[in-house]
Give the backbone structure.
Amino acid sequence: MKNKPAEISPGQEADKLKEIPKWTRQYAQNQEALPALAVMAIISCMFAGILIPAHFAQAAYRAGNLALYRILMIVMIAAAASLTYFSLSGRMKKLIKRISNHHNNQEGNISISSPEAIKKKQRVEKVSVALLALCILCTLGFLGTLIPFKYFQPVSAIYLVPFFTFMYFWFRPRYSSTMLFFPMLYAAHAILIIMEVIPDKLVWFNMLSGMGYAFLTYAIGYLYNRHVLKKLKNLTHLEGEPADGD
């Protein structure tokens, strides 16, 4: 004999219905986490194309090998220009949107901000991203001369931490609070370097830590998005089927 499902009282049903807007909002805030992970992989390759030539260019310059130094500098400038173009031309956003639409084809797309409100804020975003790109290019330009490699991460934290914190609050409630993991982790890492808790021999770990923290932030956002989707299915009992979170 099959057990009958527990009956839900009208009061419990009303409480469940009240939770739906909250979880729908959180789902919308994290639905671009997986596309952002894919884009981060592309940006990481471009960033590596800047840092690796910069490191060997410094060694070539010290060794007096000016021909190799010039070649590596050309490669670094080309990689920096590609990264800047990819970030500022709108191609990065288009790629995230394309992957997001494909990924959310079965689940549906949710927006919690009106197109008019987003458009107004995007003007400030474009200026902020342009200033960020300028700061990154200046940091890379002085890397190995005025800025030692071991202090690349703390110097970059000076503008990266305020930028991502500002973007979260400026576009609020568009983005999830999981986005704040990146500036918090990056700032903490910079403090550890300044306090000499992290040894100098881990210079490459320090320089590439930003990409690792970005991957971790978006991965947390994606996993939380899966949890929220499962919660929504439990609340709505879509199509009368049991919620499985798939």
